[in-house]
Amino acid sequence: MHKMVQALWRPVWRSAWALLAAANFLWAVNIVLARGIAGQVPPVTLAWMRWTGACLFALPFAWRYLKADLPAIVRQWPMMLLLAATGIASYNSMSYIGLTTTTALNVLLLQSVSPLIIIVWAFLLFREVPTLRQTAGVLVSLFGVVAIATHGSLAALATLSLNPGDVWVIAALGIYGIYCVVARKRPKVHPLSFLVAAMAIGSLQMLPFAAWEVWQGGRIHGGLPIYLAIAYIAVLPSFVAYMLFNRGLELAGAGPAGQSMHLMPLFGSVLAVLVLHEQFQVYHALGIALIAGGILLASFKRRPAPGPVSVSSQA
Q1: Could you report the per-residue pLDDT of 68-126, keeping only the tens digit for each?
Q2: What is the rounded distance in angstroms from the CA atom of residue 147 to the CA atom of residue 281?
Q3: Is 169 helix (H, G, I), strand (E, B) or coil?
Q4: Which of 265, 88, 103, 86 is nearest to 181 (CA)?
Q5: CA distance 18 to 13
Q6: Residue 262's closest CA among 21, 16, 86?
Q7: DSSP-derived secondary structure for 208-256
Q8: Angstrom distance (rounded) from CA 11 to CA 126
């Protein structure tokens, strides 16, 4: 049986797109599941339990690397605080808050604007000037975000009557964009060491807000099924998906790995319709088409003009 599992798993571990697709599927299930239990678990409490559980689960796998890398992590504690706050604490808490008042479909489709938010932050923080196509792509995708956030209503746009949940999600994506750009400055340590340290710091940053929710009367309802859902969120989307995505990134490179994140809205939209019985509306299709069009426009590269053939110095 063990050899059979190994024989089945080995080709998957060597296939970048199988790994990337699996990671995005697990992340999509996380969003749909979090929407399904919204109202039964306070949102910041859910985020805190997710990352605390993930940290505890990952610690045995990371321990030997963490012991060696701890001095380097401590030396760069301001950067670790920033990365944990933007990539773990704020992003997840705000996303779960948004899910209490908007649909899983909206959250999934809005995820598609993340690559373009990263372009904006790269310019603001590191003066990486976008090309004309990237700028045009940002504008096109922003129209897609507006279409989803306003539910395709011109009246809502005129009165700025946005769904509060959509605003929370857009703000969360904006903060996560900071993490994606600044992560290049992270300590040069083993990925597992960095992950566990970031999860631990992020959990501590969320703890006061989770305690405030409980003090305000927030409680977990629903019994064992809800705790099983939390356990799933803590292990699979938070740790396993990260490892799958990291392996896919190693095999395929950053470009294909980044583009694979557009599988998340695809998987999640189907799940939201099938599991949560949410309705896929015309404005969803319009929004995702504009976002996808903007991303394609921003990532399109002009083919170099033909030039003289050069002879390589290596045979």
Answers
A1: 999 999 999 999 999 999 989 998 899 999 988 888 777 877 776 777 787 788 888 88
A2: 11
A3: helix
A4: 86
A5: 8
A6: 21
A7: HHHHHHHHTT----S-HHHHHHHHHHHHIIIIIHHHHHHHHHHHH-HHH
A8: 39
